[in-house]
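Q: What does the predicted 3D structure of NADH dehydrogenase [ubiquinone] 1 alpha subcomplex subunit 1 look like?
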Amino acid sequence: MPVPWEAFIPFALLTTMFAATGTLVNVAKRGQNDGKPPRYNVDAWDEMMMERDRRLTGSHRGQSVDVEAPKQFATNSSWYTERAR
């Protein structure tokens, strides 16, 4: 049975396009996460820790090894004000 050589061009184009798209999505996700893989199954504790890391370092994936928090950490509370009734 002969091989349909003319089918290899569309096959190569489709394969290249899917590979390029997957690579670009991976690069975009890692770029948003400071070069680290994305997080999955994030629960309330993880969200709270990511908010704390964002307040400490300015990035939700950054972490700090300092023993004491910076002085501005005392005033940039994550608690939002709500209207008194």
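A (community wiki): The structure tokens above were generated from the sequence. The mean pLDDT is 83. DSSP finds two helices and no strands in the chain.
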